[in-house]
Amino acid sequence: MRRIDYHTHTIFSPDAKSQPEEHILEAIKKGLDEICFTDHNDFVFEPKWLLKADAYFNALLPLKEKYKDQIKVKIGIEVGLDMKSKERTEILVRSYPFDFVIGSIHSIDLCDFAAEPSFYEGKTKQQVHAEYFDAMKTCVEAFDCFDVLGHLDYVRRYGPYEDLSIDYAYHQPVIDEVFKTLIRKGKGIEINVSGFKRFHEGLPNYLEAKRYYELGGRILTMGTDSHIACDVGTYIDQAIDIYGDIGFDDVTTFTQRKIDHHGV
Ligand SMILES: [Zn+2]
Ligand SMILES: [Zn+2]
What we know:
Helix content is about 35%, strand content about 15%. It has a seven-stranded parallel sheet with strand order 1-2-3-4-5-6-7. A two-stranded antiparallel sheet has the order 8-9. Helix 4 runs parallel beside helix 5. The chain has one domain (about 5-260): Metal-dependent hydrolases (TIM Barrel). With about 260 residues, it is an alpha/beta fold.
């Protein structure tokens, strides 16, 4: 499998610290085949989380050219999927020449569940996770302007629970619907390796990635979700070791939202 980092955030995201060039230098240092920038745009959290897309392309295009003999640099975006912002998100994605788009569930019913403790009041963990996967199913069916679904089980990072694990057996019917919809629409999943830090496995975990493959899914990217340059490329080798035996021939890469190569 090629070693890529297809999920990185720079100073163009409000929660990230490094300049894009620092990311590229780190990716070259770690010997990656490709790096893709995927700074945030979440209309539901405006104005803070809106991407300044003109400035973003103006900063990244010269770097792509400067380092073209050393590493492939792609320009992508991570868009938050929420039904209220569907049209604006679609317009944004088609207004700029993005190579790659991650679609992620960062809100449930317009609520930032990562930052809003009241979201969890009066609900069981099972209910919260069900709401999350239902929102995902709705958005994956409704949206077309993305290439892979970001961090499938991101919700496991949050909530006032001692045991943050997800009851996959309980939620599998909805997750299967998500996978089947992605496959039918020619879209993929990412392995978000940021999960290794806290959970010792990626998001999604091995069994869920395997399930996606068994249902026919072949489009797979890997990304660190790095918010600082030194994290670029971390855990990619572990992820290839662990997920590499599922059957995917390779990771998928994109140019102008078209697949460069993908597994059989
Ligand atoms: Zn995200
Ligand atoms: Zn991200």
